[in-house]
Amino acid sequence: MQVSLLYFDEESPAAQRLAEAVGIEALRMERHRFPDEELCLRLPDAELPECLVVYRSLNRPNDKLVELMLLARHARERGVRRLVLVAPYLAYMRQDIAFRPGELVSQRLVGGFLAELFDALITVDPHLHRIERLEQAVPLRQAVALSAAPALAEAIAERRRDALLLGPDAESAQWVESAARATGLAYGVCTKQRHGDREVEIALPELAFAGRRVVLLDDIASSGRTLAQAARRVLAAGAAGVDVAVTHALFAGDALSVIRQAGVEEVWSTDSIPHQSNAVLLAPALAAALGPLLDVA
Ligand code: R5P
């Protein structure tokens, strides 16, 4: 089956690394925003192949979901038989229940939307909290959830050999435990109560923090308040220093400066979202997962 990968400008380096690792052609999408905010997408002149991989990380998701709808429907009309979405960051996964009566459960709705458009999906550390498997959120036969925790852990261990890994909340336990398994580093998990978008309370686990270098490990830094609050707590408990490692560097608004003001020294992330903190490249893991999904008659 002929295969090409389509990418957009913002994600060009990571998408091209992936295309190169898999050995497929990378085609750049053109995107124009009209004054009224409608979008015009333009494909390269090349013929579309039978199998199209679309690389689109879903930070700032609202426009991107419309782009995916336009692109996938157009591709089907043009005879593309197989559509694979590589979305290293998968948006809307945190709204997995109605936290207040009447709220829409976006995880299921967005997941269902993507499953109607694509045949297969690869993502990294999707925020699956109350469900265990990605297919429960995105009902596709081929829905692959990779974890960057072991690779982030290696990056941490190279830089902070005796770090104490700390997850800021119960959800982070899955990533912190797997990072600790990969490196043998000690770990703990905090408890968190969220009172609003930017208001969180963190309680530390019963561990000796005095004199330790702590690395906070989480899937997402969004407003940065979770990490900032956890950093303040560990420094107040006597830690020698605190750094941060996250899979998805969303860092909305003032997040990075809030984290720095809380005393965080280094910030490391994967390239699931392009950001100055990117320290771990996902192309090798994505390529290993993508290869078998292309090998379908
Ligand atoms: C939630 O459980 C996630 O794992 C993150 O901890 C959360 O999304 C971080 O959000 P913020 O940076 O806005 O505190």
TrEMBL record:
Family that this chain belongs to: Belongs to the ribose-phosphate pyrophosphokinase family.
Domain of life of the source: Bacteria
Domain (Ribose-phosphate pyrophosphokinase N-terminal): residue spans on this chain: 8-114
Protein name: Ribose-phosphate diphosphokinase
UniProt source species: Billgrantia desiderata
InterPro entries the UniProt entry points to: Pribosyltran_N, PRTase-like, PRTase_dom, Rib-P_diPkinase
CDD domains per the UniProt record, alphabetical: PRTases_typeI
E.C. number: 2.7.6.1
Domain Phosphoribosyltransferase span(s) in chain numbering: 152-248
Key word Lyase present: no
Keywords: Nucleotide biosynthesis, Transferase
EC supergroup of this enzyme: transferase
SUPFAM superfamilies, A to Z: PRTase-like
Keyword Transcription regulation: no
Listed GO MF terms: ribose phosphate diphosphokinase activity
